[in-house]
Amino acid sequence: MPSTDTITGRAMTSRGRQTRQRIVEAASDLMVERGVATVSLDDVGRVTSTSKSQMYHYFSSKDGLVDAVVLCVRDRILAFQGDLLVTVASVDDLQAWADAIVASQRQAPSWAGCPLGTLASELISETGAGRPDIGEAFDSWQLLLQVVLDRLRDSGRLRADADPERLAMATLAALQGGLLMSKAVQDETPLVVALDAAIAHLHTFAGA
Questions:
Q1: What are 206's strand-pairing partners?
Q2: Predicted confidence band at 189 (pLDDT cuts at 50, 70, 90)?
């Protein structure tokens, strides 16, 4: 049964959705690796063996593709983070979350940093493509952390005076800074130190 593309408003079949998703996934990889400005629709078309007419069927412009890429990167991050955070039942459990983030960076060919942060560095000064969705993506990521900290406060694992919203923002900011510095120096130390500091700060609010 056809569905509607939320970005273009066009009706799509199941096959059309699969084709569009394949294009967006490939474009996400290219833009995170090479930079948004350097990747063209032709580049994505070559990688996905998609004709120019097909590309323009799904995306009326590069800006439309960039919008879809930001949402794709957001969804990848939220899925990864959600899987890590769903079992957190204490502040101590967040160490496993931190270790998994460091491990995921080690598995990459080089220290790649945060895909969302990489896109944000290019797009945040723009008034068009991707800009509103970058902010929403960070808000969604922060909310994932906040929900966990709300749960810990409700269960008494965080003190009643803890502010989950501010703590989540501080934790995400530390993570982003650590990822950026580790990418710059191609070494895990800044990320490890930043996450250790964030968790140590959370421990100051730990309950019984």
A1: 158
A2: very high
Cα–Cα dist 100/89, whole Å: 16
Please name the fold of domain 3-203: Tetracycline Repressor; domain 2 (1.10.357)
> Is 147 in contact with 172 (CB distance < 8 Å)?
no
pLDDT single digits (tens) 109-133: 778 889 999 999 888 776 566 667 8
pTM of structure: 0.86
* Phi, psi values for residue 4, rounded to 5°: -105, 130
Residues 100 and 84: beta-carbon distance below 8 Å: yes
Q: What is the mean pLDDT of residues 12-32?
A: 89
Q: Once rounded to an integer, what is the mean pLDDT over residues 22-51?
A: 93
Core vs surface per residue 7-41: b (16+ CB within 10 A) or e: bbeeebeeebeebbeebbebbbbbbbeeebeebeb
Nearest C-alpha neighbor of 53 from the set 68, 42, 65: 42
Cβ pair 88, 97 in contact under 8 A: yes
pLDDT tens track for 54-109: 888 898 888 889 999 999 999 999 999 999 999 999 999 999 999 999 999 988 87
